[in-house]
Amino acid sequence: MPTLGNPTGTIEILKKYNFNFQKRFGQNFLIDSHILEKIVDAAEITKDDCVLEIGPGIGTMTQYLAESAGEVIAVEIDKSLIPILADTLSPYDNVTVINEDILKVDIRKLVEEKNQGRPIKVVANLPYYITTPIIMGLFESHVPLKSITIMVQKEVADRMQVGPGTKDYGALSLAVQYYAKPKVVTYVSPECFIPKPNVGSAVIRLERYAEPPVEVKDEAFMFKVIRAAFNQRRKTLANGLGNASDLPVTRQQAQDALEALGFSASIRGEALTLEEFAKLSNYLLEQ
To answer: Which domains, and CATH codes, for the chain?
Structure first.
């Protein structure tokens, strides 16, 4: 069995199966064993853990996870990779491969079946074009989760952990920081992949909070307020909220709420912290 965490092993398997990369699935396979070890270390995988891996590819990281975890569930969308995974993962009896689109999988049900509803850990080298929907899907559906350790585009990792007043700060930063504590583990150069992506990457660990750090009367409403605040970044917050079609708030109501909470009427969304957004959405709900 070739070791996959290096270029030789990876190329050998790809040739054996005459595999062609699919651009539409954003496929870039890791070929650096140091990075693979860092990911598994950062995820703090033990034999007590059930790990969900999204997009296992040819099984490179899956092999590392299978060595450390009690159970691994790998969800792969590309059916041409299924025979390869059957081959590369044949030594492991603790891996289940599911050929499905992760956005269509009922992960709660899966966790119920495979881990008796106990929290799982998610580890993934994510296709960059669906990073945000996957992460938000995991958080918003309240899947029992301990942590998510993922490889993402560098700028997305930066966006997840920044605070107010920076150009990267936005709805994603607030959403991630409401549900989890983000920490960048390492930055990864394009050289560490086949084929090379056009952008730098980062491994980030999101440790799920037992309780969100702020008190919110209505989570969904707060996220509507946040999205409206950043949909029109150049506009004032009052205008952004007043223009949002899915918010029953007029520009005047938004302005009154901001002033009542001690903000200037011309403030922009990017100046507010998560706590301030929570206060604002709670206040608007009461009105």
So the answer is: 7-208 (3.40.50.150), 219-286 (1.10.8.100)
Enumerate residues 6+ apart whose C-beta is below 8 A from 210. Answer: none
Q: What pLDDT does residue 140 have? A: 87
CA nearest 154: which of 197, 124, 99? Answer: 197
Percent of the chain with pLDDT over 70: 99
Fill in the DSSP letter of residue 103: G
How far apart are the two ends of the chain, measured CA to CA in Å? 65
What DSSP line would sit under 179-204, residue for residue?
HEEEEEEEEE-GGGEESPPSS-EEEE
Q: Which of 164, 161, 166, 167 is nearest to 187 (CA)?
A: 161
pLDDT tens digits along 70-100:
999 999 999 999 999 999 999 999 999 999 9
> Model confidence at 123, in pLDDT bands (50, 70, 90)?
very high
Q: Are 98 and 73 in contact, with CB atoms under 8 Å apart?
A: yes
* Whole-angstrom distance, CA of residue 138 vs CA of residue 193: 26
